[in-house]
Amino acid sequence: MADKPSIVLVHGFWGGAAHWSKVIVQLHKRGFTDLHAVENPLTSLADDAERTRKMVRRLEGPVLLVGHSYGGAVITEAGDLPQVTGLVYVAAFAPDAGESPGQLTQELPPEAVDNIAPDSDGYLWIKQEKFHESFCQDLPVDEALVMAVTQKAPLGSTFGDTVTAPAWRSKPSWYQVSAQDRMIHPDNERRMAERMAPRATVELDCGHASLASQPDPVVELIAEAAKDLHG
């Protein structure tokens, strides 16, 4: 592949750009050298989409957007920029117009929904003692502990923010389903994937944090998308 696109990685709730660490290392080893990971404020979908758009606008040439979890809603909203050529969803929300992550969650509640608790300032946290079993049950205890302690809580209102014009309706997409996901119901992921008619769907026998527990097939899907789009 002579011309590889820029890849912009978008994290979800309860994490930051460093959640992509294993994916970043492997993509770089495969020759993807123009890699970027957005650090979203998680204050509203509009704020997060604009932060992602700013990252994309400063790049030259085609961009492949990759979103994990709530990051899928962000790339759905921000993927309308002309230089964005494709979207890769990693155990992610892919709302349609007028839908929010909260609405989708309520329609098919995931196993760990009761392990999310608000604080007095309106931020939502995964209870630390429940983080491993909820978010990343297939990661080693030490890795899960670091994720739990460094988790980045979103404003609860962000769950209710709706997508305006979903980019997956006009851009090629790819989707990875996590069959043991406890944060987004696996059947919800399958439903969202099916309706977007992705060029490829990969289902992995793993928890929500597939980007950390199964980086090899996640990287393979991203590389497949890049090759399909840019030869």
Describe the structure.
With 231 residues, the chain is of the alpha/beta class. The protein has one domain (6-230): Rossmann fold, CATH 3.40.50.1820. It has 9 helices and 8 strands. The strands form 2 sheets. The protein has a 6-stranded parallel β-sheet with strand order 2-1-3-4-7-8, with helices on both faces. A two-stranded antiparallel sheet has the order 5-6. Strand 3 (63-68), helix 3 and strand 4 form a beta-alpha-beta unit. The longest helix is centred in the last third of the chain and has 16 residues, at 215-230. The protein is globular and about 45 Å long. The termini are close together.
Layout of SSEs?
Elements: E1 6-10, H1 21-29, E2 35-38, H2 45-57, E3 63-68, H3 71-78, E4 84-90, H4 101-107, E5 116-118, E6 124-126, H5 128-135, H6 141-149, E7 173-178, H7 186-196, E8 200-204, H8 210-213, H9 215-230
Parallel strand pairs: 1-2, 1-3, 3-4, 4-7, 7-8
Antiparallel strand pairs: 5-6
Helix pairs in contact: 1-9, 2-3, 5-6
